[in-house]
Amino acid sequence: xxxxxxxSRLLATIExxxxxxxxxxxxxxxxxxxxxxxxxxxxxEPTVENLLKVCAVLNVSVSYILFGVQMSAETEEIxxxxxxxxxxxxxxxxxxxxxx
Length: 100
What we know:
mainly alpha; 59% helix; elongated
């Protein structure tokens, strides 16, 4: 995957929502040019915390922006919980995998 695919998805999402980079920055509680700085010649990289804020404002999952995979909030929560608890993850996999 190209390094800047996430930027293309973010720009497309901003456009689809009918808003601007400036408005998204402000609504996320960031400086007015913060999101724009991810795309201009500075190529500033976002922190995870700020990317999460921007995604929340746009009502889009971070997994979609970063990887192009759309997941519901519930699916992301399930994955997070399974990742934190290997025993539960193994039990769920045992249930979901077909018997050999």
